[in-house]
Design a protein that fits this description.
- With about 350 residues, this protein is an alpha/beta fold.
- It has eleven helices and 14 strands.
Length: about 350
């Protein structure tokens, strides 16, 4: 007889008991436990509710070693930013004898139900969600299976009980803008990411704080939103450069957006950095090889990914992390895309 562990180590509940309480067959319960798809939604919900009631926990192997898979979920993969995170997770996973399974949500912020079924069938160690989120129902289903998850760069303000990893985005926004102010710039544009994303809002808030520190007001027409990709950097850069009084510097919310600003400047006949200073955010490997090399804010993407992986492994082992929220430091990397304004 297959058994399900409960939250009480001395107690055991069998699949037969779950089946009797749910009014279904034992094979049906087994299908739900193992993430099989051929179960009606209402039946699955009833079985999962009873599993949650008993605090189902998958049995560990006799050696105590993890089953072997970490699920890594991105809302999209069309970015070298994602590759840096993948490398960080994969490096640490490999050290622990684990594999990494990638899921792309194709631009959506939350996975669908079939994803939960796949997770269950893989018997994964845990889940790392990157700029993604889970519905309350999905969280409860992972909790019912004692399956830990960690969020990297939460979409919104994370719940206190949700482990998350991020960077000091506000400080990064402050440092980028302060660098431009110290060079003599007073009319500084800002291109952020999606306004609903926490890291984007924090970078813009840091930008505003730096301006306010020296008595500069935030000009609404100088603050634009994109999606962290090159195209939005180009589109919003064109709008900023076409203003009657264009900025002398632009802080882009990502290195990719900064590359879009470069192209916008080229198309308008504006020289970087002689006529326009540009600062990015991320310090992707490509930032050193742009022309001119890009001044940017480095966020430690590999370290963020490794920290998320360590958190998942701690939670899988039943350990209590020292903190539920990890923020790693950002720093300014000055290269050749920033200079004093030409009129200074």
């Amino acid at each position: 007889m297959v058994e399900l562990s409960t939250t009480d180590p001395s107690a055991r509940v069998t699949i037969a008991r779950i089946a009797a309480e749910a009014g279904v067959s034992a094979p049906t319960v087994s299908k739900v436990v193992n993430g099989r798809s051929e179960v009606a939604a209402a039946t699955r919900d009833r079985v999962e509710a009873i599993i949650a009631k008993y605090g189902y926990q998958r049995r560990r192997s006799a050696t105590g070693q993890p089953p072997g898979v970490i699920d890594l979920v991105f809302h999209e993969l069309e970015s070298p930013w994602a590759m840096e995170v993948i490398r960080g997770v994969e490096t640490l996973a490999r050290e622990h004898g684990l594999s990494v399974v990638l899921t792309e949500l194709q631009g959506y912020r939350r996975p669908d139900r079939s994803w939960l079924d796949a997770i269950a069938s893989r018997r994964t160690v845990g889940v790392i969600l990157v700029v993604s989120d889970l519905s309350p129902h999905q969280r409860s289903q992972l909790a019912a299976r004692r399956l830990p998850f960690v969020v990297v760069d939460p979409v919104g303000e994370p719940d206190p009980d949700v482990p998350s990893v991020g960077a000091t985005n506000w400080s990064g926004g402050l440092a980028a803008t302060r660098h431009l102010i110290e060079l003599g710039h007073r009319r500084i544009g800002m291109i952020g990411g999606p306004p609903q994303i926490l890291c984007s809002r924090a970078r813009i808030d840091g930008y505003r704080a730096a301006l306010e520190t020296v008595g500069l007001s935030t000009d609404g027409e100088l603050v634009r939103h994109g999606d962290f990709h090159v195209e939005s950097g180009y589109e919003q850069g064109i709008k900023l450069l076409d203003l009657p009084e264009p900025p002398t510097a632009i802080f882009a919310g990502s290195d990719l957006q900064a590359l879009g600003v470069y192209e916008a400047a080229r198309s308008r006949g504006v020289s970087v950095p002689d006529q326009l200073s540009v600062v990015g955010f991320d310090d992707l490997p490509i930032a050193r090889w742009t022309s001119p090399p890009l001044t940017t804010i480095r966020q430690p993407l590999g370290e963020m990914a490794a920290s998320a992986t360590r958190l998942v492994l701690q939670l899988f082992r039943g350990e209590t992390p020292q903190t539920q929220r990890i923020e790693l430091s950002t720093r300014l990397v000055v290269r050749e895309s920033t200079a004093r304004p030409s009129e200074a």
